[in-house]
Amino acid sequence: MSFLSPLYLIGAALVALPIVLHLLRRDVAPPVPFTAVRLLRVSPIERSRRRRLRDILLLLARVAALLLLAGSFARPYVLGARTSTRTTVIAVDRSFSMSAPGVMEKARALAKQAVDEAGGDRVLVVAFDQRADVVSASGAASDARVAIDDIRASFGATRYASAFDRAAELLPEGAPGRIVLVGDLQRSGFDGSTAAMTEGLDLVVRDAGGAAGNLAVVDVHAAAKRLLATIRNYGASPRETDVRVQVAGRTEATRRVTVPAAASIDVPFDGLGSRAAVDVAVSD
Prior knowledge:
The chain folds into three domains: 2-28 and 45-77; 87-207, Rossmann fold, CATH 3.40.50.410; 215-282. Helices cover 25% and strands 31% of the residues. It has five helices and 13 strands. Helix 1 (16-24) runs antiparallel to helix 2 and helix 3 runs antiparallel to helix 4.
């Protein structure tokens, strides 16, 4: 058995509270002197042994209630027995870098695509940053889609080892399985730590970062009547873009160029070098 929110199990320590109160509380009647006992009315007294048994049962009931409450908040789940049905674990990056415009939306779409491709597999969903949490453990595709929609970018760092370790815990030993990693593939996520990967598992990586936002104007140089703009492509694939030169908010010239992957090119504009102030921009 595992737990989706194991930190709530710390609340089980509260069971000590009723035990301590039970041990400390002692109802001892104080002695009261009487001058004439014959004036007292005879009344039955409850046997102390029966009362002690009732107190113990009440204590056990209170302890059980606290344990059940802590266990319910921890959200326990039981992995199925070894089966021939393949299990697909979809690990979605929720680190801070995923908060870039459009990145998390693309990641959710890729994760849902992985759910559709799983077919009859058991589908489990893990959201990770520097730690990994199981957000869907039922194995149903419908629950996996709902959990994917609820994933939001956090302020945490990217640690791929946490995702692989948690996925290895979820996959039944000896059964066929697949891990689908969805994220923007930040290099900082590979911090040199090792991750547990069971032999025979399939690993599929889906890049949600894409090439958007990888172009930048890194330099603008004016010489005589020529304007020279340097465009840098930080992406891993060539990009086509429109380079625009604007003067006082009005577009004076546009050139469409192709920038190779991880390279820079100079884009010349004739007749604009003598302008006092210009703006150069690229379109993604």
